[in-house]
Design goal:
- Helix content is about 40%, strand content about 20%.
- It is α+β, with helices and mostly antiparallel strands.
- It has 2 domains: about 160 residues, Chloramphenicol acetyltransferase-like domain (Chloramphenicol Acetyltransferase, 2-Layer Sandwich); about 220 residues, Chloramphenicol Acetyltransferase, CATH 3.30.559.
- The chain has a 6-stranded mixed sheet with strand order 5-6-7-2-13-12, sandwiched between helices. A 6-stranded mixed sheet has the order 8-15-14-11-9-10, sandwiched between helices. A 3-stranded antiparallel sheet has the order 1-4-3, with no helix packed on it.
- The radius of gyration is 22 Å and the shape is globular.
- The protein starts with a strand and ends with a strand.
- About 50% of the residues are buried.
- InterPro entries: Acyl_transf_WS/DGAT (IPR014292), CAT-like_dom_sf (IPR023213), O-acyltransferase_WSD1-like (IPR045034), O-acyltransferase_WSD1_C (IPR009721), O-acyltransferase_WSD1_N (IPR004255).
- It is an enzyme of class 2 (transferase).
- It catalyses: an acyl-CoA + a 1,2-diacyl-sn-glycerol = a triacyl-sn-glycerol + CoA.
- One of its GO terms (cellular component) is plasma membrane.
């Protein structure tokens, strides 16, 4: 029986169709120590490990007038060599050259006539390193599923799958299935306020250098912070990892605006958060990834600690209604005919919205170090897509005791490195503040912190 695309996943194709400069592919970049393996050996190894996921050998067939959902069919001309490429970074092969190469690869669209994925082997890096860039269309996998796929390609993950699989080469499919539809009218009434908030955020007027038409080229940069530093801040101020990351992101955007003579206003940084924020120790459930949050990040606040606590409060406020609203919207989309949902997605992609200024996603990555063909994976960097007039997208991935933050931007947005370095500096400031004060313990054993 043919397997059809869900309305949500078909919507990602619709968003891509709305703007020829948009690519809805998500990326995961693994940086490895050691000499790069020869192409033939690497291709054989990856092909063997990819064989357990049938989706990598299938392409989409779309029907005339989009009257029914696109369906997955086996590609009779599938050749893994067409999907595994090799490219050398320009000299001297530093992170700057690597990031520029990633931006170029992520800027072009995947070929709709073939299976919607690519893997690029990147050589020529300094420090005896090489890299592996996995690029997968969002209709196949979100960032969380892509991180799981990378684990499956590693020596560790493949060995575990081989040991526990019920049948040879049987690999669990990425957690990206059909949405559960909530038909409880009471839940829909409770979500109405959140739906209004989401719609208002999308349609409200505004102007920012963070919004505008997207070109066909991209810029990419990345930040890296120890997870232990984030957890230090969490313990002292009683916040979550996601609170810290979004507070740092807020400060980086704030500094960007101030340096350009702009005055940050309370509504200057409405941020689209697909799914509910997750951490490595609390991975997202499939239904969480089908929700939306649109919090107003406190970009107007100058004090780092007060800003952090305001992020915690505003996220909690958004979750109280917007999460259920996002699920309600997704559930409604699941009930619509595919032609209607595709039309709505294209319309949304063409919307000249100014209310949302940024995109931020958080992905739980592998907690243990990985190896690929005996080479240590020293970094795993996420690469989010950008669309809907959003010129920047930020994705955070946890891996082996560190948080890696990937920033993808339109090429006309030249401050991508500035944002990444600002994120690192903002985390460092919060860590320094946390070390000035220690949590007090009341007689119940609860952690208390003096006001900022």
């Amino acid at each position: 029986m043919a397997e059809h695309l869900t309305p949500l996943d078909a919507g990602f194709l619709g968003v891509e169709d709305s703007d020829h400069n948009v690519s809805m592919a998500t990326g995961t970049l693994a940086v490895l120590d050691g000499p790069v393996p020869d192409q033939a050996s690497l291709q054989r190894t990856l092909a063997e490990r990819l064989r357990g996921c049938p989706r990598f050998g299938q392409r989409l067939v779309r029907h005339a007038l989009t009257l029914s959902a696109p369906e997955w069919v086996d590609d009779p001309h599938f050749d893994v060599a067409h999907h595994i490429g090799r490219v050398a970074a320009p000299s001297p092969g530093s992170d700057a050259e690597l990031h520029a190469l990633v931006a170029d690869v992520m800027s072009w669209r995947l070929d709709r006539d073939r299976p919607l994925w690519e893997i690029w082997v990147i050589s020529g890096l300094s420090g005896d390193r090489w890299a592996l860039l996995m690029k997968v269309h969002h209709c196949i996998a979100d960032g969380t599923a892509a991180a799981h796929m990378l684990t499956g390609l590693s020596d560790n993950g493949f060995a575990q799958l081989a040991a526990h699989a019920a049948a040879p080469h049987e690999v669990p499919q990425p957690p990206h299935g059909r949405l559960a539809v909530d038909l409880n009218p009471l839940h829909w009434i409770d979500a109405l306020r959140g739906v209004v908030e989401l719609a208002t955020g999308l349609l409200q007027p505004g102007a920012s250098a963070l919004n505008g038409p997207i070109t066909s080229r991209r810029r990419y940069s990345a930040a890296r912070v120890p997870l232990a530093d984030i957890q230090q801040v969490c313990r002292v101020f009683d916040v979550t990892v996601d609170d810290v990351v979004l507070a740092a992101l807020t400060e980086s955007y704030r500094d960007f605006m101030i340096r350009r003579g702009q005055v940050p206003q309370p509504d200057s940084l409405r941020t689209l958060v697909p799914g509910s924020p997750v951490t490595a120790d609390a991975p997202a459930r499939p239904d969480d990834r089908a929700s939306l949050l649109l919090p107003r990040l406190p970009i107007e606040e100058s004090n780092p600690v007060k800003r952090l606590l305001a992020v915690r409060s505003r996220l909690a406020e958004a979750k109280s209604g917007q999460r259920d609203a996002g699920r309600a919207v997704m559930s409604a989309a699941g009930l619509l005919p595919v032609a209607w949902s595709a039309w709505a997605a294209r319309l949304l992609g063409q919307l000249r919205q100014r209310g949302v200024a940024a995109l931020a996603t958080t992905v739980p990555g592998p907690s243990e170090p990985l190896q690929i063909m005996g080479c240590d994976v020293v970094a795993v960097l996420p690469v989010p897509p950008i669309a809907m007039q959003l010129r920047t997208g930020v994705s955070v991935l946890s891996y082996a005791g560190e948080l890696f933050i990937g920033v993808l931007a339109d090429f006309e947005f030249a401050a991508v490195d500035e944002l990444a370095r600002g994120l690192e500096a903002a985390v460092a400031r919060l860590v320094a503040r946390s070390k000035r004060r220690r949590p007090l313990r009341d007689w119940h054993g609860l952690a208390l912190v003096h006001s900022a």
